[in-house]
Write a structure and sequence with these properties.
It is built from ten helices and four strands. The protein is an alpha+beta fold and 255 residues long.
Length: 255
């Protein structure tokens, strides 16, 4: 099951952004700028920035999330957001051991008993094939390495890594994975605009809404207007619009 945690963020992100923006227009030094930024002035300045669309100062604030229970399919989508940092659980170094195989099930498949049975059967077949390949390859690599004079303990470790490196090719996109992702606030604006939209794929859309909720809890003014384009204006999808702007705005207000 998808679970996301905001594990770290820039301390006092809104104050930092306000100070960074004021630096552009003030002759005062950094200490003086920070001393004059009361919570009220910070909020007012951030609202002005968002109204102006002046987004470069918000790049100074970063947010790091731990994401679990998502598919490798989602991983392929989120890493398209290139102004970010990612650390992902490796299928080369982490073997999926007996009884630990987990995967994401699309809601539309879950609703259909026949589809669900087919889906689960296929997943188990993939996993059993993975185990068979991993064991077979590991046995051969182990034999070759020990014959080459590699100590048994080192040979076993190396053989397993070599085996799962190739066995993973049969694993489906549905396989669960986990990752850490860090984005600055401006990148998050872009991420939320694209991925909170109803036209985004269901899994990454749910992740985006959960991330936005966490951001608003620590930086309510900074992320007050973050979300898909229809939250604060017309839909940017044109003829491809989902036509549910009212529902989307309601969800945004209820975060």
């Amino acid at each position: 099951m998808l679970h996301v945690t905001l594990v770290e963020h820039t301390p006092n992100p809104e104050r930092l952004i306000a100070a960074s923006a004021k630096m552009c227009y003030s002759a005062a030094d950094a200490d003086a700028l920070l001393e004059g930024l009361t919570p009220e002035k910070t909020e007012k300045f951030l609202q002005m920035l968002t109204d102006m669309g002046h987004e470069s100062p918000i790049e100074h604030a970063t947010f790091t999330f731990a994401v679990e229970g998502v598919s490798r399919s989602l991983l392929a989508q989120i890493t398209r957001h290139r102004i970010a940092s990612y650390s992902v659980q490796s299928q080369r170094y982490v073997k999926i051991k007996e009884g630990t195989f987990s995967f994401v099930t699309p809601p539309e498949i879950e609703k259909d008993p026949a589809a669900m049975e087919t889906y689960q059967s296929f997943m188990q077949n993939c996993y059993q094939t993975y185990l068979t390949l991993a064991d077979s390859l590991q046995e051969r690599h182990m034999k070759e390495l020990t014959e080459a004079g590699v100590p048994e303990k080192a040979a076993r470790r190396q053989a397993e890594k070599m085996a799962i490196e190739d066995a993973r090719y049969v694993l489906p996109n549905a396989c669960e994975t986990k990752l850490m992702v860090t984005m600055n606030a401006r990148s998050l604006y872009n991420f939320f605009r694209l991925r909170c939209c109803n036209r985004a794929q269901w899994e990454i859309r749910e992740l985006a809404w959960q991330m936005l909720k966490l951001c608003r809890e620590v930086s309510p003014t900074l992320f007050a207007k973050a979300g898909p384009s229809c939250v604060n204006g017309p839909c940017s999808e044109g003829k491809m619009s989902c036509g549910k702007a009212v529902e989307v705005r309601q969800r945004s207000e209820n975060l």
